[in-house]
Amino acid sequence: MKSLQGTVSMQKKDKVNSTVSSFQLPAKPQVLTELQLEQSRPNPSMQVFSEIISKDVALSSSLLKTVNSPAFGLKRTVTDIKQSVIMIGYSGVTNIASFYQLQNSFKEKAAISLEKFWDTAMDTANMMSLLLENLSITLSCTKEDAYAFGLFRDCGIPLLAIKYTDYKEVLIEANSSPEQEFTSFEDNRYETSHATMGYYMAHSWNLPKNICELILRHHEPDFLASSDSDESQKELYALIKIAGNTLSQYKFAKDDCEWFLAKDHVLDFFAISEPDYQDIEDDLKEAFSVQFG
Predict the structure, then answer these.
(1) pLDDT tens figures, 130-150
(2) DSSP assignment of the chain, as one string?
(3) What confidence category does residue 9 fall into, taking pLDDT thresholds of 50, 70 and 90?
């Protein structure tokens, strides 16, 4: 699988590393270290796992609120942490805890509204869950990974928004130029991108390796044709393009800026016709409105 070093040319590698080192990456919270350590054991203890989370009242509350949201479609209300672990598993709980901790790690003034950014990340994760439920295609990727990728895909954006006061201008320019790769605007201005910084961020917090790689590569227009990624990663890449475009249509009644370059590749990958895609999008928007609107 392609690594960060394989993605950046040798001529640019030193410059990229120098730029990255100028960022202050948030330290991984102790609670995540403890959760990941327990999860890595041959026979993790559900009791210990639950106790680690329960020590943080705010984290526990946020976790239960998320688990009981329509995205998980649970048939009964989960009232304690142990139940949430039973219902969505160790990895699912850890991913939600990571997202909550990530939000709380960025308190500095930023060039964009971080509150809106986190809301969009959660909306994207929810749309990914709905898409898996509505897409009548057998897939190898899991709902858990789809939800996690939706949450963390753009986790590098807050880093750039805090460091660069003109970052909003770059986002506007990139969003207004669908014919160009999104991260090219960031690379030209800052010699790094939110995809690169997101990879470093996710990797330093020990998020799942497949999610880290996707964060790095989610703007590569030829990703679906690559030979160094597995089928589940390609599925997640294609799914998030559909989810992102559907969310843009739902919120703003226009295509997402990435859809122009991704559309043909995604429809070919899933063997979906244009009319069938439109039906999927319409169904998703209706379902999203009912559950999350």
Answers:
(1) 999 888 888 999 989 999 999
(2) ---HHHHS-HHHHHHHHHHHHTS-PPPPPHHHHHHHHHHTSSS--HHHHHHHHHT-HHHHHHHHHHHTSGGG--SS---SHHHHHHHHHHHHHHHHHHHHHHHHH--S--SS-HHHHHHHHHHHHHHHHHHHHH--S--SS-HHHHHHHHHHTTTTHHHHHHH-TTHHHHHHHHHT-TTS-HHHHHHHHHSS-HHHHHHHHHHHTT--HHHHHHHHHTT-TTGGG-SSS-HHHHHHHHHHHHHHHHHHHHHHSS--TTHHHHHHHHHHHHT--HHHHHHHHHHHHHHHHHHH-
(3) very low
